[in-house]
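Risk register update: the risk of archive-format incompatibility is retired. Evidence:
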Amino acid sequence: VQLQASGGGLVQSGGSLTLSCVVSGIAFSSNVMTWYRQAPGKQREWVAMITSGGSTNFVDAVKGRFTVSRDNAKSTVYLQMDSLRPEDTAIYYCNMYRTVFWGQGTQVTVSS
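Archived output:
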């Protein structure tokens, strides 16, 4: 099983990034997918989730700015991040809900 996250980078405050997480080696379409992030010196926190049916939920800090979507044909989950703020700076991880399967993380840095 492999979760390959990508799409991070350096962006100015107010900018946008789209993260991708490609899943292989396990059934994708029937599983809930989540995104987490870990900022320097802080604990990993849950950011967003999307169910197999496409329902989504977000931590309050990103509501209205982040969108999560999935393409089951490509076994890929996306995190569209708009209106980025310096406090969004973190390593972002994808995770298959209630499993031990995590992506390797992708760094997002938002400059002020």
